[in-house]
Amino acid sequence: MRRNELDQLLESMLQINSDVSDLNFTVDKPPQVESTGQLMPVPLQWPIERLTPYQTEMIALNIIGGNRRLTEDLLKTGSCDTSYSLSDKARFRVNIFSQRGNFSVVLRKLNTTIPTMQDLYLPPILRQVAEEKTGLVLVTGATGSGKSTTLAALLDLVNETKAVHVITLEDPVEYVHSQKKATFNQREMGNDFDNFANGLRAALRQAPKIILVGEMRDRDTVEIGLSAAETGHLVLSTLHTIDAGQTINRILGMFDSEEQKQIRLRLADTLRWVVSQRLVPKTTAGRYALIEIMGANLRTQESIILGESEGKTFYEIIEASYPFGWRTFDHACLEAYEQNIITEEIASRYCTKRGPVTRGIDALKKRRGEITSDLSRLQMSAGGGAQGKTPPVPTHLKLR
């Protein structure tokens, strides 16, 4: 397979529908695309029922294009990350990896247009992130949950409103920011720097006000990121964690026990926001991002320094600050269900605590006049008192 043949194949796969997010090449499977969270085979003009090891290897080698660093990474570590451009039609973030002696290739389609906060239906409180001057902001979630897209929207807001220098360290560069009011320098790992820790060290000498670190992958990156936040920079980054509480524990877990006390103090002083995301299917076509938001106040700082305890868990702290714009995933699920964006099943599946969410959904159903239980037809026996009475309908939604 030549490169022009690979480009034709990729172009054909993208034309399946407008919601394609990933292209997947795996031995013994046909070429597949992921759309709205589901993998599906691609009907090509010349059907490929099962990819052979030779075919996936040729696809991998065409993407690598003789790059020595990528070849060494693939042979030494079993995988490599890069980017790939399909002329002016599409850009991809690519991971090539070995499995059972064969190569597999996954290409994540990157949007060429940077979405706005309105496009993503992000909560208005996230505008406060763009107003921060210093500190650490973490956007967390599983792979493919939209972390990079959220950060791109936040940086685009900065680009529209502030004349500041922004350095991004990415693997690879996903969204290309135009030069508006802010000045952007976007550096790609492998081409412009060798690892996040070294790239971050260098960034401190490049006079930025805002630094985007693609991912906090290791202890060194976290430690330098904390130092950058302490010395007057705003540091934005991502972590693969499922909620705010696990984010704090994941960072602390990167350090030895004798360092924990000092790291807790530093993290409590620098952490400004933790934004966690879960991408879920909508009732209509497409997907929707459920957002959990935790800011910084005296209660969060105390729990970071002393650890969570009864009545002082991060979940309870966020829940108590709901009137100020913070929200748990359970709040997000109930709000999305109330607006008919997601179904009851999806709300129950992606929430954090099923009990409060189930009670909240029942309260909403009662408010709408919907039946919430099959027991509604039961009657009390003779002499048992009044029949058909129902409990009072709540006037507002509560998780407690």
What does the model show?
The chain has 400 residues and is α/β, with parallel strands linked by helices. 36% of the residues lie in helices and 22% in strands. It has 14 helices and 13 strands. The strands form two sheets. The chain has a seven-stranded mixed β-sheet with strand order 9-8-10-11-7-12-13, sandwiched between helices. Helix 12 runs antiparallel to helix 13. The longest helix has 15 residues. It is globular and about 60 Å long. The relative contact order is 0.08. About 2% of the residues have low confidence.
Order of helices and strands: HEEEHHEEEHEHEEHEHEHHEEHHHHH
Report the average pLDDT across residues.
90
Strand content bin: 15-25%
Q: Would you count the extended β strands for me?
A: 13
Strand order of the largest sheet: 9-8-10-11-7-12-13
Helix content: 25-40%
Main sheet properties: 7 strands, mixed
Output the radius of gyration. 24 Å
Ends distance: 60 Å
* Annotation field: number of helices: 14
Going by helix content, strand content and strand pairing, the class is: alpha/beta
Principal-axes shape call: globular
Unreliable stretches (pLDDT < 50, length at least 5) are: 388-396
Mind sketching the topology for me?
Elements: H1 3-14, E1 20-25, E2 32-35, E3 38-41, H2 53-64, H3 68-77, E4 79-86, E5 90-99, E6 102-110, H4 127-131, E7 135-141, H5 147-161, E8 165-170, E9 183-188, H6 196-203, E10 210-213, H7 219-230, E11 234-239, H8 244-252, H9 260-270, E12 271-281, E13 287-294, H10 298-306, H11 314-320, H12 329-338, H13 344-350, H14 354-368
Parallel strand pairs: 7-11, 7-12, 8-9, 8-10, 10-11
Antiparallel strand pairs: 1-2, 1-6, 2-3, 4-5, 5-6, 12-13
Helix pairs in contact: 6-7, 9-10, 12-13, 12-14, 13-14
